[in-house]
Amino acid sequence: MLFAILAFSIYKQVQHKDDWQQKWQAIRASINGPGTWKLYAVIVLMLVNWGIEARKWQVILRHMNKISFAKAFKSVLSGVAFTMVTPNRMGEFIGRVFYVEEGNRIRAATLTVIGSISQMIVTLVAGVTGLIVIKEKMSGLEDISSLSMLWVNGLLFGTIAVVAAITLFYFKISWLVRVAEKIPAFKKYIYFIVLLDDFKATELLNILSLSAIRFIVFVVQYLLLFAVFEVHIPLWEGCCTVAVLFLILAVVPTIALAELGVRGKASLALFGLFSTNSFGILVTTGGIWLINIILPAVLGSLLILNVKLFNKNNGLHEKNGS
């Protein structure tokens, strides 16, 4: 329902542009133009992006059992497949544990918290930085109401408070084990979270740095597609606006299949502060969504199907051999 409302709103907004047909023709020409290599670079960076996430997962799982990078990569893609139908991609751990031994799957699921929090910290910190820049731009616009600025200020200071709390929790995540040990009802579940006590500050910093590099890859992808589709935004403002977009996507509850509508509406509002190329903004946003989310999800679905078929065939062999 939310997707339908946002999609209709975007359609009406773009329809009012007199030159939308010319813009569409220009976009089609851009795809086959001299900047096509940038589009291919975005696809390659998608693999880099999920490769970094796979490395993070590999590092995190070392506290339980070592897995190869290839297996970690497959695990991550399988996780993406499950995020398509879960709010804010919270079902990612379900797909990842397909590649973990059955006795360790619940423990592995708890370890996904480390990677998720590290990425959230980077997203929020970058979002705060970007929001400060965007706030200055918005405050200079005549049609921005005081109520809108109040919302921006609320989001800014609220995010700063959340960043401080989450960062403290992240670097003191072993406290979770300590607290659980003191609650009698939770003592029998300590086994599943005790590995959180093994993460040292240096390891957590390493995981956080991988999350930061991954975020930079996201930003570069947007900048490349902006160049392809002739969305002219100054480099610094472009980086900051992308950061604010990811901040919005992090705090607005949605599922990946309906996320395109939220992305489109937010992108028009944010990038529209610097560019009038609405069509280019929408195509860039849709392109990033397809390349970074849909394509990996399709690959992950095929991997999950392969795992299920493999396990089923193994079961048949064992039955026939008995």
In a few lines, what is going on in this structure?
This protein is mostly helical and 322 residues long. The protein has one domain.
Distance between the termini: 52 Å
Arithmetic mean of pLDDT? 81
Which consecutive residue ranges, at least 5 long each, have pLDDT under 50? 1-11, 315-319
Fraction of residues in β-strands: under 5%
Radius of gyration, in Å, reads: 22 Å
What structural class do helix, strand and pairing data support?
mainly alpha
Number of separate domains: 1
Biggest sheet features? none
What's the tally of helices?
Answer: 13
Question: How many beta-strand runs?
Answer: 0
Determine the fraction of residues in helical runs and give it as a percent range: over 70%
The string of secondary-structure elements, in order, is HHHHHHHHHHHHH
The shape is globular
